[in-house]
Amino acid sequence: MTKQPYRKHIFFYHKQDETINEQLERLKDVAVNNDFTVVDEAKKANIIVSIGGDGAFLQTVRKTGFRQDCLYVGIALQHEIELYCDFNLENFSELLYAVQHEEEIEVRRFPLIDVSINGVASSKCLNEISVRSPIVKTIVMDIYIDDLHFETFRGDGLVVATPTGSTGYNKSTMGAIIDPKLPCFQVTELASLNNNKYRTLGSSFILSSEKKLHLEIEQGGNDFPVISFDNEAFPIRNVKEVTVGLSNQVVKTVKLKNNTYWDRVKRMFL
Ligand code: NAP
Protein backbone atom coordinates (compact mmCIF):
# COMPACT_ATOMS: atom_id res chain seq x y z
CA MET A 1 0.00 0.00 0.00
CA THR A 2 1.43 3.40 -0.95
CA LYS A 3 1.95 5.81 1.88
CA GLN A 4 -0.34 8.82 1.67
CA PRO A 5 1.32 12.23 1.71
CA TYR A 6 1.40 13.69 5.18
CA ARG A 7 -0.67 16.76 4.30
CA LYS A 8 -2.35 17.58 1.01
CA HIS A 9 -4.62 20.60 1.13
CA ILE A 10 -2.77 23.80 0.51
CA PHE A 11 -3.99 27.39 0.76
CA PHE A 12 -2.05 30.42 -0.44
CA TYR A 13 -2.43 33.64 1.56
CA HIS A 14 -1.06 36.79 -0.04
CA LYS A 15 -1.82 40.41 -0.64
CA GLN A 16 -3.12 41.44 -4.05
CA ASP A 17 0.02 42.35 -5.90
CA GLU A 18 0.76 42.01 -9.61
CA THR A 19 4.12 40.26 -9.14
CA ILE A 20 2.69 37.81 -6.61
CA ASN A 21 -0.39 37.11 -8.75
CA GLU A 22 1.88 36.22 -11.69
CA GLN A 23 3.97 33.85 -9.59
CA LEU A 24 0.97 32.33 -7.86
CA GLU A 25 -0.34 30.53 -10.93
CA ARG A 26 3.04 28.86 -11.35
CA LEU A 27 3.13 27.82 -7.65
CA LYS A 28 -0.38 26.40 -7.89
CA ASP A 29 0.61 24.36 -10.98
CA VAL A 30 3.69 23.01 -9.17
CA ALA A 31 1.50 22.05 -6.19
CA VAL A 32 -1.12 20.28 -8.33
CA ASN A 33 1.59 18.45 -10.31
CA ASN A 34 2.93 17.19 -6.98
CA ASP A 35 -0.41 15.71 -5.99
CA PHE A 36 -1.57 18.55 -3.73
CA THR A 37 -5.04 20.08 -3.79
CA VAL A 38 -5.13 23.85 -3.83
CA VAL A 39 -8.10 25.00 -1.73
CA ASP A 40 -9.87 28.36 -1.85
CA GLU A 41 -10.47 28.78 1.89
CA ALA A 42 -7.96 28.59 4.71
CA LYS A 43 -10.34 26.50 6.84
CA LYS A 44 -10.15 23.64 4.29
CA ALA A 45 -6.34 23.59 4.32
CA ASN A 46 -3.80 21.74 6.38
CA ILE A 47 -0.89 23.68 4.88
CA ILE A 48 -1.18 27.46 4.79
CA VAL A 49 1.41 29.20 2.65
CA SER A 50 2.11 32.89 3.11
CA ILE A 51 3.67 34.70 0.17
CA GLY A 52 5.57 37.87 1.06
CA GLY A 53 7.86 38.80 3.91
CA ASP A 54 7.66 38.50 7.66
CA GLY A 55 4.87 41.07 7.81
CA ALA A 56 2.85 38.92 5.39
CA PHE A 57 3.53 35.84 7.52
CA LEU A 58 2.25 37.63 10.64
CA GLN A 59 -0.93 38.60 8.80
CA THR A 60 -1.41 35.08 7.44
CA VAL A 61 -1.19 33.49 10.86
CA ARG A 62 -3.46 36.13 12.42
CA LYS A 63 -6.11 36.16 9.69
CA THR A 64 -6.34 32.37 9.65
CA GLY A 65 -6.77 32.15 13.42
CA PHE A 66 -3.42 30.74 14.65
CA ARG A 67 -4.47 27.27 13.51
CA GLN A 68 -3.08 24.44 15.60
CA ASP A 69 -3.95 21.72 13.11
CA CYS A 70 -2.01 23.32 10.24
CA LEU A 71 1.51 23.78 9.10
CA TYR A 72 2.32 27.35 8.17
CA VAL A 73 4.96 28.07 5.55
CA GLY A 74 6.53 31.43 4.70
CA ILE A 75 7.64 32.01 1.13
CA ALA A 76 9.80 35.07 0.63
CA LEU A 77 9.77 37.00 -2.59
CA GLN A 78 13.04 36.41 -4.45
CA HIS A 79 15.95 35.63 -2.18
CA GLU A 80 15.23 38.04 0.62
CA ILE A 81 16.28 36.89 4.08
CA GLU A 82 13.27 36.71 6.34
CA LEU A 83 12.87 35.39 9.82
CA TYR A 84 9.64 33.47 9.23
CA CYS A 85 10.31 32.42 5.63
CA ASP A 86 12.38 29.32 5.04
CA PHE A 87 11.39 29.15 1.40
CA ASN A 88 11.38 31.44 -1.60
CA LEU A 89 9.74 31.41 -5.02
CA GLU A 90 12.67 29.41 -6.43
CA ASN A 91 12.73 26.51 -3.96
CA PHE A 92 9.00 25.94 -3.55
CA SER A 93 9.28 22.32 -4.81
CA GLU A 94 11.67 21.57 -1.94
CA LEU A 95 8.84 22.47 0.43
CA LEU A 96 6.41 20.12 -1.33
CA TYR A 97 8.99 17.34 -1.29
CA ALA A 98 9.59 17.84 2.43
CA VAL A 99 5.88 17.78 3.23
CA GLN A 100 5.37 14.61 1.16
CA HIS A 101 8.19 12.80 2.94
CA GLU A 102 7.13 12.85 6.52
CA GLU A 103 10.40 11.32 7.67
CA GLU A 104 12.29 14.29 6.21
CA ILE A 105 10.10 17.00 7.56
CA GLU A 106 11.37 19.19 10.35
CA VAL A 107 8.78 21.24 12.14
CA ARG A 108 9.55 24.36 14.13
CA ARG A 109 7.24 25.32 16.97
CA PHE A 110 7.14 29.04 17.62
CA PRO A 111 5.82 30.23 21.00
CA LEU A 112 2.84 32.60 21.11
CA ILE A 113 1.66 34.96 23.82
CA ASP A 114 -1.93 35.29 25.01
CA VAL A 115 -3.20 38.79 25.77
CA SER A 116 -6.25 39.77 27.82
CA ILE A 117 -7.54 43.31 28.00
CA ASN A 118 -9.77 44.35 30.91
CA GLY A 119 -10.02 40.66 31.85
CA VAL A 120 -11.24 39.51 28.44
CA ALA A 121 -9.09 37.21 26.26
CA SER A 122 -8.29 39.41 23.31
CA SER A 123 -5.61 38.01 21.05
CA LYS A 124 -2.61 35.82 20.56
CA CYS A 125 0.55 37.36 19.17
CA LEU A 126 3.36 35.77 17.22
CA ASN A 127 5.71 38.80 17.40
CA GLU A 128 4.61 41.07 20.21
CA ILE A 129 2.04 43.25 21.87
CA SER A 130 2.94 46.89 22.33
CA VAL A 131 1.10 49.32 24.59
CA ARG A 132 1.88 52.89 23.67
CA SER A 133 0.80 56.40 24.50
CA PRO A 134 -1.18 57.85 21.59
CA ILE A 135 -0.47 61.44 22.57
CA VAL A 136 2.41 63.64 23.58
CA LYS A 137 1.73 62.85 27.27
CA THR A 138 3.44 59.86 28.83
CA ILE A 139 1.52 56.75 29.82
CA VAL A 140 1.66 55.49 33.42
CA MET A 141 1.35 51.80 34.23
CA ASP A 142 1.79 49.74 37.35
CA ILE A 143 3.62 46.60 36.34
CA TYR A 144 2.99 43.36 38.21
CA ILE A 145 4.71 40.03 37.78
CA ASP A 146 2.04 37.65 39.04
CA ASP A 147 1.02 39.31 42.33
CA LEU A 148 4.27 41.22 42.85
CA HIS A 149 4.12 44.96 42.22
CA PHE A 150 7.36 45.23 40.28
CA GLU A 151 7.53 48.87 39.20
CA THR A 152 5.59 51.92 38.12
CA PHE A 153 6.36 52.81 34.53
CA ARG A 154 6.04 56.25 33.02
CA GLY A 155 7.11 56.77 29.44
CA ASP A 156 6.11 56.04 25.85
CA GLY A 157 5.06 52.44 26.44
CA LEU A 158 6.09 48.80 26.60
CA VAL A 159 6.78 46.00 24.15
CA VAL A 160 6.13 42.41 25.23
CA ALA A 161 7.69 40.06 22.70
CA THR A 162 7.75 36.36 21.97
CA PRO A 163 11.11 34.71 21.21
CA THR A 164 10.59 35.04 17.43
CA GLY A 165 9.32 38.57 17.92
CA SER A 166 12.59 39.35 19.71
CA THR A 167 14.22 40.24 16.36
CA GLY A 168 11.41 42.68 15.54
CA TYR A 169 10.31 45.73 17.54
CA ASN A 170 11.94 44.27 20.66
CA LYS A 171 15.38 44.42 19.04
CA SER A 172 14.99 48.10 18.16
CA THR A 173 14.33 48.79 21.84
CA MET A 174 17.58 47.04 22.82
CA GLY A 175 15.94 43.79 23.91
CA ALA A 176 17.88 40.53 23.62
CA ILE A 177 17.37 38.00 20.85
CA ILE A 178 15.88 34.82 22.29
CA ASP A 179 16.15 31.28 20.99
CA PRO A 180 12.57 30.21 20.14
CA LYS A 181 13.15 26.87 21.84
CA LEU A 182 13.00 28.76 25.14
CA PRO A 183 9.38 29.06 26.29
CA CYS A 184 9.42 32.64 27.56
CA PHE A 185 8.51 36.22 26.74
CA GLN A 186 10.37 39.50 27.06
CA VAL A 187 9.39 42.95 28.28
CA THR A 188 11.16 46.07 26.99
CA GLU A 189 10.56 49.71 27.74
CA LEU A 190 9.91 52.53 25.31
CA ALA A 191 11.62 55.65 26.61
CA SER A 192 10.94 55.31 30.33
CA LEU A 193 11.14 58.39 32.49
CA ASN A 194 13.56 57.83 35.36
CA ASN A 195 13.71 60.39 38.15
CA ASN A 196 13.02 60.64 41.89
CA LYS A 197 9.35 59.94 41.35
CA TYR A 198 9.46 57.23 38.73
CA ARG A 199 12.01 54.46 38.67
CA THR A 200 12.00 51.46 36.36
CA LEU A 201 14.43 48.63 35.84
CA GLY A 202 15.71 50.28 32.67
CA SER A 203 16.74 47.00 31.08
CA SER A 204 14.52 44.43 29.44
CA PHE A 205 13.49 41.36 31.43
CA ILE A 206 12.45 37.86 30.44
CA LEU A 207 9.64 35.89 32.06
CA SER A 208 9.12 32.15 32.05
CA SER A 209 6.01 30.32 30.89
CA GLU A 210 4.78 30.12 34.50
CA LYS A 211 4.63 33.88 34.97
CA LYS A 212 1.97 36.41 34.07
CA LEU A 213 2.69 40.05 33.34
CA HIS A 214 -0.04 42.36 34.49
CA LEU A 215 -0.23 46.04 33.54
CA GLU A 216 -2.58 48.40 35.34
CA ILE A 217 -2.98 51.59 33.38
CA GLU A 218 -3.44 54.80 35.33
CA GLN A 219 -6.88 56.20 34.61
CA GLY A 220 -7.75 59.80 34.01
CA GLY A 221 -6.02 61.10 30.94
CA ASN A 222 -4.04 58.50 29.11
CA ASP A 223 -6.22 55.41 29.40
CA PHE A 224 -6.73 55.20 25.64
CA PRO A 225 -3.40 53.64 24.62
CA VAL A 226 -2.66 52.29 21.18
CA ILE A 227 -2.42 48.55 21.53
CA SER A 228 -0.70 46.67 18.72
CA PHE A 229 -0.96 42.95 18.24
CA ASP A 230 1.89 42.13 15.82
CA ASN A 231 1.23 44.36 12.83
CA GLU A 232 -2.30 45.44 13.68
CA ALA A 233 -3.07 48.40 15.94
CA PHE A 234 -6.25 48.62 17.99
CA PRO A 235 -7.33 51.85 19.62
CA ILE A 236 -9.26 50.47 22.61
CA ARG A 237 -11.08 52.86 24.92
CA ASN A 238 -10.82 52.75 28.71
CA VAL A 239 -8.07 50.20 29.00
CA LYS A 240 -7.66 49.47 32.69
CA GLU A 241 -5.56 46.32 32.62
CA VAL A 242 -3.58 44.19 30.22
CA THR A 243 -2.43 40.69 31.09
CA VAL A 244 0.15 38.76 29.07
CA GLY A 245 1.30 35.17 29.44
CA LEU A 246 2.85 32.50 27.31
CA SER A 247 0.23 30.57 25.37
CA ASN A 248 0.02 26.80 25.44
CA GLN A 249 -0.43 27.01 21.67
CA VAL A 250 2.34 27.38 19.10
CA VAL A 251 2.70 28.14 15.41
CA LYS A 252 4.10 25.18 13.50
CA THR A 253 6.21 25.81 10.41
CA VAL A 254 8.17 23.60 8.06
CA LYS A 255 11.90 23.96 8.45
CA LEU A 256 14.53 23.60 5.76
CA LYS A 257 17.49 21.52 6.83
CA ASN A 258 20.63 23.49 7.72
CA ASN A 259 18.62 26.65 8.29
CA THR A 260 18.47 27.08 12.02
CA TYR A 261 17.03 30.12 13.74
CA TRP A 262 20.55 31.36 14.40
CA ASP A 263 21.54 30.86 10.73
CA ARG A 264 18.72 33.20 9.84
CA VAL A 265 19.54 35.69 12.57
CA LYS A 266 23.13 35.77 11.30
CA ARG A 267 22.06 36.22 7.67
CA MET A 268 19.59 38.89 8.64
CA PHE A 269 21.71 41.04 10.89
CA LEU A 270 25.43 40.24 10.48
P1 NAP B 1 6.54 47.26 8.85
O1 NAP B 1 6.57 48.45 9.72
O2 NAP B 1 6.16 47.42 7.42
O3 NAP B 1 7.97 46.54 8.85
C1 NAP B 1 8.72 46.26 9.95
C2 NAP B 1 9.95 45.44 9.52
O4 NAP B 1 10.12 44.42 10.50
C3 NAP B 1 9.80 44.73 8.17
O5 NAP B 1 11.03 44.80 7.50
C4 NAP B 1 9.46 43.31 8.56
O6 NAP B 1 9.89 42.35 7.62
C5 NAP B 1 10.28 43.17 9.82
N1 NAP B 1 9.84 42.11 10.75
C6 NAP B 1 8.59 41.72 11.09
N2 NAP B 1 8.65 40.74 12.01
C7 NAP B 1 9.96 40.53 12.25
C8 NAP B 1 10.67 39.66 13.10
N3 NAP B 1 10.05 38.82 13.92
N4 NAP B 1 12.04 39.70 13.08
C9 NAP B 1 12.69 40.55 12.28
N5 NAP B 1 12.08 41.41 11.46
C10 NAP B 1 10.73 41.40 11.45
O7 NAP B 1 5.54 46.20 9.51
P2 NAP B 1 5.32 44.66 9.20
O8 NAP B 1 6.17 44.21 8.05
O9 NAP B 1 3.87 44.45 9.10
O10 NAP B 1 5.89 44.01 10.54
C11 NAP B 1 5.28 44.25 11.78
C12 NAP B 1 6.34 44.21 12.81
O11 NAP B 1 7.17 45.34 12.68
C13 NAP B 1 5.84 44.30 14.24
O12 NAP B 1 5.35 43.06 14.71
C14 NAP B 1 7.11 44.75 14.95
O13 NAP B 1 7.91 43.66 15.37
C15 NAP B 1 7.87 45.50 13.88
N6 NAP B 1 7.96 46.90 14.25
C16 NAP B 1 9.18 47.41 14.50
C17 NAP B 1 9.34 48.70 14.93
C18 NAP B 1 10.70 49.19 15.22
O14 NAP B 1 11.64 48.42 15.04
N7 NAP B 1 10.86 50.42 15.68
C19 NAP B 1 8.22 49.54 15.10
C20 NAP B 1 6.96 48.99 14.85
C21 NAP B 1 6.85 47.66 14.42
P3 NAP B 1 9.25 42.23 6.14
O15 NAP B 1 9.81 43.40 5.38
O16 NAP B 1 9.77 40.94 5.68
O17 NAP B 1 7.77 42.28 6.29
TrEMBL record:
One of its GO terms (molecular function) is kinase activity. Its EC number is 2.7.1.23. Its main location: cytoplasm. Its cofactor is a divalent metal cation. The keyword ATP-binding applies. The active site is at D54. It catalyses: NAD(+) + ATP = ADP + NADP(+) + H(+). Pfam families: NAD_kinase_C (PF20143). Belongs to the NAD kinase family. PANTHER family: NAD KINASE, NAD KINASE 2. This is NAD kinase. It comes from Paracerasibacillus soli.
